[in-house]
UniProtKB/TrEMBL annotation:
Transmembrane helix recorded as keyword: yes
Protein name (Swiss-Prot/TrEMBL): Urease accessory protein UreH-like transmembrane domain-containing protein
Pfam family, one: DsbD_2
Entries under InterPro entries matching the protein: UreH-like_TM_dom (IPR039447)
Keywords tagged on the record: Membrane, Transmembrane, Transmembrane helix
Length: 224
């Protein structure tokens, strides 16, 4: 069960890579163009993305740990989370297929609640002239308001464990890495592939049907 959960996280990241590129791809590609030394540019790109992974893992640990506290106080908590995770899987699928702006409200919430405070630290990291700054910059941008990331966090909540929550979000981040790292090296070709309508529809439908399956399972559990 745990392995399948982490595979779900990885697939969510992989399926949503097109959105990740739209949100953060500009930064990844700019590192390649702004730094003349190609080896150094590649190192900075890897460190930037590793910084994102660290922030996602910290967020996963936080929500997983908090959910563990609530789960110990309520027998119905797990059932409620099952419904929420299934619902958000459907929303992610629709979002990826661009059939509905189903996660925009989450991004707006994150912008006002979190990002407007964190983004102020940008000034301390620019220009990116060291490996430490590249890593910290990625960690900072890991908190960028993103509906896809927030949806993954709703799944991390279902783990009801800080370590599992962190590993779930790390798996999600790993799913985004092929596109994010590759985008820095081959921006246009990867972006074109991920924005292909057929690819988006296939990936989105898989997530929607998986979400509906989870909702069906949760409903059956609620009735028994």
């Amino acid at each position: 069960m745990t392995e399948s959960l982490f595979l779900t996280a990885f697939f969510m990241g992989l399926a949503g890579s097109g959105h990740c590129i739209a949100m953060c791809g500009g930064i990844a590609s700019s590192l390649q163009f702004a730094i003349e030394d190609k080896t150094k540019a590649q190192q900075f790109t890897l460190l930037y993305n590793f910084g994102r992974l660290i922030s996602y893992s910290i967020a996963g640990a936080l929500v997983g740990g908090i959910s563990a506290i609530f789960a110990s106080q309520s027998n119905n908590f797990s059932l409620i989370l099952s419904f929420i995770s299934g619902l958000f899987m459907v929303l992610v699928g629709l979002y990826i297929m661009r059939l509905a702006a189903s996660l925009n409200w989450l991004e707006k919430f994150g912008k006002y609640a979190i990002w407007q405070h964190i983004v102020k630290f940008n000034k301390y990291l620019l220009p990116l002239n060291s490996k430490k700054k590249a890593l910290a910059y990625g960690a900072l941008w890991g908190w960028l308001p993103c509906g896809l990331v927030y949806s993954a966090l709703t799944w991390a909540i279902t783990t009801q464990n800080a370590i599992s929550g962190a590993l779930f979000m790390a798996s999600f981040a790993l799913g985004t890495l092929p596109a994010m790292i590759g985008f820095g090296f081959a921006a246009q070709s990867i972006k074109k592939w991920l924005n292909n309508t057929i690819i988006r529809m296939i990936l989105g439908n898989i997530l929607v049907f998986y979400g509906l399956y989870l909702l069906t399972i949760a409903t059956k559990n609620a009735l028994h």
